[in-house]
Amino acid sequence: MTESEMAARKVIGEAETSRGELKKARDELNAARKKKGSHLETILKNFSTALEQAKNNFAHDVNVCDASNFVAPNVSIYVGEDVFAQLVAVNFSADSGNDGKLLGNCTQKVETLGRLVEEIGVYSNATRDNASKALQHADAAEKSAKEAEERAIDVVKSEINKKWSEICAAEGNMTALSRKVTELERQRDHLYKNLSVVAELSNKTMNKALVAVRNCTAAAAIAMEAMITVLRTTNETGRVVDANSTCAKAYANVTNEDGAVQRVLRDTETTKAHVGKLHRDVNTSLAAGKSQLEQMKRNFTALSEFTNGGHLVLFGSARFPANINVLKLSLENATKIYTKLRSITAFNASRIEESLTSFGNVVAGISSNLTVAVVHQKGAADNVTLAETKAKEVEEETRAVLKKALEKQRARLCDTVKQLTEINNKTTALQKEAIAVRESEAAQLKRASAANQRAEDAVTRAVAAEPHAAEATAQYQLTGEAFRSARIEAKHLVKNAAASLQANEEHIKKINNNFT
Predict the structure, then answer these.
(1) Do 64 and 44 touch, CB atoms closer than 8 A?
(2) Which whole number is the average pLDDT over 176-184?
(3) Other CB atoms closer than 10 Å to residue 274's CB: what's the count?
(4) Which residues contact 484 (CB under 8 A, 6 or more apart)?
(5) Is the whole-model pTM more than 0.70?
(6) What does the CA dihedral 50, 54, 57, 58 come to, rounded to 10 degrees?
């Protein structure tokens, strides 16, 4: 600081002090003046009261201070005493000297302050150029401040656009994440559906394999039995045994492949609860993200109250503006907006992405399980095809063996039928002979009976004929016994022959039916 500046500051300080003293003196003078005025009002009131007593309403009709118009009223002796008492109360103060002293003091203070002002004027002339320069600097500073204010407002506008871009990006990110979740849900449902199809195919494959191996086993057993019991040879069992062995191996392979399929299905079923939990986590994180995004939108839209009645953006429109243009914005409102913008937290999609990754991993695991299940199911289906092929081969070989066995058995049965036919013919002839014998015996019995009758008649005619009669009687008895024995034997023979014929006929009929 220069010497002149210091001197000027000193004079200014003295002027400030003098101004304070002048203010004090002026206040004292004003107080005295107000006191004097109040005293005069009291005197006027007392004088007016005296006049009122001297003459009614005189004080209200005449200005008592107008000497040219004032005339003292005539006062009667009766009211003179009261008027005199009121006039005695009219007492002018003797403080006129004090008032003059106060006025002189105030005048002195004014003169002192005037002198100091003149000195300040001298210093002011010396510093006028500096003041002009300072004013120029102040103008430049004001201009710079305005430019800085405009830049600050532009920065806030830029931050508004950046925050809007951030919200738009968050909106797009949320849409993309929601689509990914929807796609994963679709994949999961599709995979579960395909696994159900694989499970159904697995059941059908196992049933086919079981039917094929049963056919193989049954046909092979029939072929082996036919070879051993009918053909009485094992030379032709090789192809049947090989085909049956291949069929059994194919069935074992089907069982192994289906076991792998069932393990995959069980593992997938076990993880369904975990998949459901991860799916719920994804939906929860999505809901939280949507809630955060909606809050960001509301907070951003609420900034409109600081834009002089304008609107920053209308959310929900079909096409969002790419850039927000705030035409009028004060520095104060820009500062408030900037503070509010800083309070709008950045969109955090990390939790959604983490839960989505976990959900995507388990869906990928289900896809891998489906791939494994399909591979094993294909292996099982291929082995079922092989088993069915070998079952057909065993059946064909069995048919060939049975054909040979049936041919051989047919030949044997034909011989049996031929023999039975011959036996039937002989039995029929024997039956006829038995019937003839039975008829011959009946004729002889009839002749014996007639001879016995003649003998009895002869007894009556002559005693000499008695020996002959006795002999005839004996012959009759012998003939009767022989007849009875022959009749019993013939009856048995005829009965047995009939039963044998019936049995042989049924046997022949059964053989013919089996070969029909």
Answers:
(1) yes
(2) 94
(3) 12
(4) none
(5) no
(6) -80
Structure tokens that stand for 31 in this block: 């107080």
Q: How far apart are CA 37 and CA 34, in angstroms?
A: 5
pLDDT greater at residue 372 or residue 9:
372
Distance CA 351, CA 207 (A): 48
d(CA 11, CA 5): 10
Listed residue (372, 377, 371, 365) closest to 199, CA to CA: 377
Closest CA to 201 of 388, 373, 387: 373
Cα-only R_g, the chain? 75
The whole-angstrom separation of Cα 248 and Cα 386 is: 10
Q: Extract the tokens encoding 85.
A: 């008492």
- DSSP reduced 3-state for 235: coil
The two structure tokens encoding residue 285: 């994180």
Kindly compute the dihedral angle of the four CA atoms of residues 468, 472, 475, 479, in this order, to the nearest 10 degrees. Answer: 170
User: How many angstroms separate the CA atoms of 272 and 196, rounded?
Assistant: 13
Please report, to the nearest 10 degrees, the dihedral formed by the alpha carbons of residues 310, 313, 317, 321 taken in order. 110
Task: Report helix, strand or coil for 134.
Answer: helix
Please state the separation of Cα 328 from the chain's center in Å: 47
- CA distances (Å), 456 to each of 98, 450, 471, 480, in order? 224, 10, 11, 17
Tell me which CATH code domain 150-402 carries.
Answer: 1.20.1260.80
Separation CA 321–CA 299 (nearest Å)? 18
The DSSP 8-state label assigned to residue 313 in this structure reads -
**Token representation of residue 353:** 């992405």
Report the 10 Å Cβ neighbour count for 93: 12
Q: Contact at 8 Å (CB) between 208 and 380?
A: no
How far apart CA 97 and CA 78 sit, in angstroms, is 39
- Residues 312 and 304: their CA atoms lie apart, in Å, by 6
| Domain segments of the chain as ranges | 3-148, 150-402, 409-515
The kind and range of the H/E element at 39 are: helix 3-54
CA distances from 52 to 48, 59, 80, 192 (A): 6, 6, 12, 121
Residue 315: strand, helix, or coil: coil
SS (H, E, C) 106-168: HHHHHHHHHHHHHHHHHHHHHHHHHHHHHHHHHHHHHHHHHHHHHHHHHHHHHHHHHHHHHHH
Distance CA 65, CA 407 (A): 176
Q: How far is CA 509 from CA 184, 423, 495, 499, in A?
A: 74, 15, 21, 15
C-alpha 337/C-alpha 300 separation (Å) is 9
Q: Are 479 and 451 in contact (CB under 8 A)?
A: no
Segment among 173-187, 220-234, 250-264, 376-390 with least mean pLDDT = 220-234
- Tell me which residue of 78, 67, 73, 71 sits closest to 54, measured CA to CA: 73
Tens of pLDDT, residue by residue over 429-439, are: 766 766 776 66
Query: Among residues 249, 262, 240, 238, which one has the least CA distance to residue 213?
Result: 249
